Amino acid sequence: MQLDSKMVYLLLGSNLGEKELLLNSAIFKISEQIGTICIQSSFYETAAWGVEDQPSFFNIAVGVETTVSPMQVLAKTLHIEEELGRVRKEKWGARLIDIDIILYGQEIINEGEKLQVPHPQMQNRRFVLEPLAEIAANVFHPVLKQTIAELLVSLNDDLTVSKI
To answer: Any bridge partners for residue 81, and if so which?
Structure first.
C-alpha cells in the first residue's frame, strides 16, 4: 500500500567535527533515502542545550515530502546518523550528527520511548523553533493548535540562536 505523501519536518544538528559538511551530507542522504527536500532553513549557530559545557551546535531545519511511514523515517534517520559516525554516549551530549523528527504532516504519533510526533519538547526550544519558523512559520502544531510563529513569539527559552 502506498502512503499519501506527507511533509515531514526534521531538525538536524552537529557540534563536533566538520559541522557544516556533516549537515550537508545528512541532507543529501535524507534526499536519497527519505524523500524530496522541498525547503531548508539557513544554518544557525546555537548554544548547547541540556548539557551546556560542550561546543555550540550548527542546526538546520528541512521540510521533506515523503511517502515513507513515520517509523520508517525514524529508522532511516537513525541509519543516516550511524552512517555519518554518530555514537550515542550521553543524553544531550556532544555529537557529530543528530536528526530529529519534529512534525510529520499533522499527525500525532505516540510510540512511547521510540517516537513521539510532534516532538514533545519542540515548543520549549529556541534552537528548534527559530530554523523551523524560517521555513514553516504558518504550519500548525497539531496538539497545541498554534502556528510555529506563534510558538516562537511565546517562547521563554533565552538560548543564543544566531543565523549564520
So the answer is: none
Tell me which of 129 and 94 has the higher pLDDT: 129
> 114-123 pLDDT, tens per residue?
999 999 999 9
Domain residue ranges of the chain, discontinuous segments joined by + = 6-158
Domain 6-158 -> CATH class: alpha beta
Q: How far apart are CA 82 and CA 37, in angstroms?
A: 20
* 143-159 b/e (C-beta count within 10 Å ≥ 16 → b): eeeebbebbbeebeeee
Q: Residue 161: what are its φ and ψ, rounded to 5°?
A: -135, 120
Q: Which residues are catalytic?
A: 86, 95, 98, 100
Q: How far apart are the first and last CA of the chain?
A: 42
Maximum alpha-carbon separation in the chain? 47
User: Is the link from the previous residue into 70 a cis peptide, with omega within 30 of 0?
Assistant: no
Residue 34 DSSP class: T
Residue 94 has phi, psi (to 5 degrees) of -60, 145
Which pTM value belongs to this model? 0.93
| 18 DSSP 8-state letter | S
Per-residue model confidence (pLDDT) at position 113: 86
